[in-house]
Amino acid sequence: MSLSIQGKTAIVTGASRGIGLAIARHFVERGANVVFADSDEEALDQAMSDHVKENAHLVKFAGDISQKLAMANLLSATLDAFDRVDVLVNAHRFVKGSDPLDTDTGVLDEMMRQNMTAGLRLSQMVAKRMIKQAEGQTDVIQAGAIVNISTLASVKPVPAMLGYSIACAAQEQATRGLALALAPHRIRVNGVRFSSVMSHELKCALRENSEIRDQIIAGTPLGRIASADELSETVHYLASEGARFMTGQIVTVDGGRSLADPVTAQDL
The domain that contains 119 carries what CATH number? Predict the structure, then answer.
C-alpha cells in the first residue's frame, strides 16, 4: 500500500491561508507538483515564501474559482505547468454569519455558490480531464482523487450560520453523489469534516477573544486544538493510493468533538 504522492499533480483551492495553505505546502514537501489557487493574489504572494516561489514543483493561480471562466483558466494553468492533474483538493471556504429568520436569500445563495457549487463544478471539470488522461490505461487502479473539505456544521447546525451549515451539508451530499458517478472511471471522491482544528477563521476568532480557546479545548475529548498540518495528513492519505478502495466517505477529524457537545461558530 503506497501513501506516496511524489510526482502527482494536485490543485489545492483556498491555498492562501489556513487549512488550504497547510495542505498545499504539505503536498509540495512530499514531492507533489502543486497549484496554489485562491482569489486573493496578495495573500497568495505573502503565503508563499521566497524559497517556495523558486520551487519548480509549484505555481500559483489567482482567480475567483466560483466563476466558470476562472475554473477553466485554473485547469489550463495546471496543464501548462505540469501537463496533467491527478488530485483536486477543494479547500476553499467562505464563512459568513446570517440571521436564521432573514427571508433574504442573498446570503444563502452566496454560501451555496462559494462552498458547494464552485467545488462541484470544478470537480466536474477536473474529472473530465482525469478521465481523458486515463484512456487506454486499463492497468491503472486510480485515475484521480478528489478531496472536499467540510466542517462539523454539516451535521451539527449552527443557527447563527444557517446558510453556511446548509452549504456544508450540501457539499457532503455532492461528495457522495459524485463518488458514485465517477467510480466507473476509477476516480475517487471523499471528504474531510473537521472541527477543533486551527483554521484561519479560528485564528481570527482567538485574536478577538482568547477565552474561546479554553471553551473549545474543554469540549474536545482529546483536550487540544489540532494544527492545520494534522488535517493535511488525512487529506494526504485520501489522495494517495493507500486509500484506493475508499470513495464517497466523509472522514471526521475533530478530536472527538462531535461526540461531546454542540458545535459553535468558533469551531469552524
Answer: 3.40.50.720
- What value, to the nearest 5°, has the Cα angle with vertex 102 and ends 101 and 108? 110
pLDDT at 268 over 70: no
The DSSP 8-state label assigned to residue 256 in this structure reads T
Q: Is the pLDDT of residue 177 over 70?
A: yes
| Total structural domains within the chain | 1
Residue 50 placed within a domain: yes
Q: How confident is the model at residue 135 (pLDDT cuts 50, 70, 90)?
A: very high
Report H helices in the chain: 18-29, 41-47, 50-53, 68-82, 106-112, 118-133, 162-182, 200-208, 211-218, 228-239
**Cα–chain-centroid distance for residue 233?**
13
Angle between helices 211-218 and 200-208 (to 10 degrees): 120
Q: How confident is the model at residue 208 (pLDDT cuts 50, 70, 90)?
A: confident
Are 265 and 97 in contact, with CB atoms under 8 Å apart? yes
In a domain, 2, yes or no: no
Strand order of the β-sheet with 58-62 is: 58-62, 33-38, 9-13, 87-90, 144-151, 187-194, 250-253
Backbone torsions φ then ψ of 256, nearest 5 degrees: 90, 5
Residue 1: inside a domain, yes or no?
Answer: no
Q: 147 with 239: CB under 8 angstroms? A: yes
Task: Compute the C-alpha angle 93/95/98, nearest 5°.
Answer: 150
Does residue 4 belong to any structural domain of this protein?
A: no
Q: Is 208 exposed, middle or buried (0-12, 13-18, 19+ CB in 10 A)?
A: exposed
DSSP letter, residue 226: B
Q: Residue 24 belongs to what domain range?
A: 9-267
Q: What is the pLDDT of residues 66-94, one digit of tens each?
A: 999 999 999 999 999 999 999 999 999 98
